[in-house]
Design goal:
Blueprint lengths: L13 E6 L3 H14 L9 H4 L15 H4 L8 E7 L5 H8 L4 H6 L1 H5 L4 E2 L21 H18 L4 E6 L16 H9 L7 H11 L4 E3 L9 H9 L3 E4 L5 H15 L3 E11 L2 H6 L2 H19 L5 H4 L3 E8 L8 E9 L5 E9 L2 H21 L4 E2 L22 H15 L10 H7 L1
Helix pairs in contact: 1-4, 1-15, 7-8, 7-9, 8-10, 11-13
This protein binds nicotinamide-adenine-dinucleotide.
Length: 440
């Protein structure tokens, strides 16, 4: 890990590669293009709108994060990616139906110029889709080599200085760790022998890391959670992070649950259900893809509420998550939560949340922040799992033997303290010593 003066500069162009050019990816790219033109604002983006307090409160130093750390300017981002459908970014954005037609028209030529590269795909891993723009190769290693060639070509053609890869592709079916995932040697043997336990997303991650491109995992796929890929990340000094963008209902959960715990209010049940009608919803309608999402969504409450530390309050609470595909809603998801809590003398109470959210509007700023911060991490010499980026993910990655931090407010503190540490500033403890110092 480097400190302030050794962190490499953010000059030059940064390529942002997204496997998957669907609703999230197109909303992210169209958003950045409109922000560059001054016709949109980066609401929800920590790197663009967030501030960071430095030193004592009396010093009144609160710079914007983007002015505090060296980050790539939005004008220097170049977009590319892969999809199993040949639609360019304009067509894909129209299909996704997230952004208004007139906004897309004003960005049309730039969006049309971003065309996907053909994908590495396996219908066994995403059962509801049947695209045709797919690479062919005798082995999974050959497919990885083709992706590596795509990455190298993209860098040359666009005169890039650096690249990041953020997975914005569909959710793959649920799989558990397999012996082929255990070591890099076993994984590379598996690539050559077409091992069925190697998912397409793992082939992208492998290709990225071999090319020293950091990889962020926006879906609940197993991809970078396996020792083989983590070994490669460390070997090549590349950061990885994941998994599953924290948007919608889980965002609400990680805001509300820390509050309940702070006030020592008990929980007997939390029932969450959603309706959504975009392509993501269609993929998640398939039970094995839903299983990946379910596992990623269920972890948050257990870790935040710590039933083993607070058995009187949180032992045996009932937690259920449902996602229902409902086409009329498109990307405008509705998430309901029924929360059964109890207070003083065990008296029961209920909280109802009805979040009429827009999935991709919440996810797009996370793609931007992750792209910029993963690039920053690379220039700061940080390698392997980037736990300080947990803030952006539903199911944060952690090193072996550690538990993931799900509380949004602790995650934010961790992120900002990491930035303070790297930039040689004091960490903030919120002790409030200024008051006593003034009195002396
Ligand atoms: N929208 C959110 O709020 C949100 C939140 C958390 C996670 N996610 C995850 O982000 C991902 C993208 O979501 P979305 O709403 O954009 O979905 P989407 O269906 O609109 O887009 C996904 C795209 O990936 C493509 N794809 C599938 N497999 C591929 C492969 N192997 N290679 C290249 N392309 C491939 C599909 O053709 C599709 O165009 C999903 O996995 C979703 O679960 C989204």
């Amino acid at each position: 890990m480097k400190k302030k003066n050794d962190i490499l500069s953010a000059n030059g162009k940064l390529g942002v590669l997204t496997p998957g050019m669907g609703a999230v990816s197109t909303t992210f790219v169209a958003g950045v293009l409109s922000i560059r033109k001054g016709i949109g604002r980066p609401i929800g983006s920590l790197t663009q709108m967030g501030t960071i307090r430095l030193g004592k409160r009396t010093e009144k130093r609160i710079p914007m994060i983007k002015e505090f750390i060296p980050l790539t300017e939005l004008d220097n981002l170049v977009f590319g990616g892969w999809d199993i459908f040949e639609d360019n970014m304009y067509e894909a954005a129209v299909h996704a139906g997230v952004l208004k037609k007139d906004l897309l028209e004003s960005l049309r030529s730039e969006l049309e110029s971003i065309r996907p590269m053909s994908a590495v795909f396996d219908p066994d891993y995403v059962k509801r889709l049947n695209g045709t723009f797919i690479k062919k190769g005798k082995t999974k290693m050959e497919l990885a080599d083709q992706l590596r060639e795509d990455i190298r070509q993209f860098k040359i053609e666009n005169k890039l200085d650096r690249m990041v890869m953020i997975w914005c592709g569909s959710t793959e079916t649920y799989i558990e760790s397999d012996p082929v995932h255990e070591t890099l040697a076993a994984f590379e043997k598996g690539l050559k022998e077409n091992d069925t336990a190697i998912a397409p997303s793992m082939i992208y991650a492998y290709a990225a890391l071999k090319e020293k491109v950091p990889y962020g995992n926006g879906a609940p796929n197993l991809t970078v959670d396996i020792p083989a890929i983590q070994e490669l990340a460390l070997q090549n000094n590349v950061p990885i992070s994941g998994k599953d963008f924290k948007t919608g209902q889980t965002l609400m959960k990680t805001i509300i649950a820390p509050g309940l715990k702070a006030r020592l209010l008990g929980l007997s049940g939390w029932f969450s259900t959603n309706i959504l009608g975009n392509r993501d919803g269609e993929v998640l309608d398939e039970p094995l893809s839903f299983k990946s999402k379910e596992v990623s969504k269920l972890g948050a409450l257990e870790y935040i509420l710590q039933p083993e530390v607070y058995p009187d309050l949180y032992k045996d609470f009932y937690h259920k998550v449902r996602i229902n595909y409902y086409p009329p809603r498109g990307d405008n998801k509705e998430g309901w939560d029924n929360i059964d809590i109890f207070g003083w003398l065990d008296y029961p109470m209920q909280i109802k949340v009805d979040f009429l959210c827009r999935d991709s509007i919440l996810a797009a700023p996370l793609v931007l922040d992750l792209a910029l911060l993963m690039d920053f991490a690379t220039r700061a010499g940080m390698t392997g799992i980037q736990e300080w980026l947990s803030f952006f993910y539903k199911s944060p990655m952690v090193g072996e033997g550690l538990y993931p931090e799900h509380d949004l407010f602790i995650q934010l503190k961790k992120l900002k303290n990491t930035l303070r540490y790297l930039m040689g500033e004091d960490l903030i403890t919120h002790l409030g010593l200024e008051y006593y110092e003034q009195k002396q």
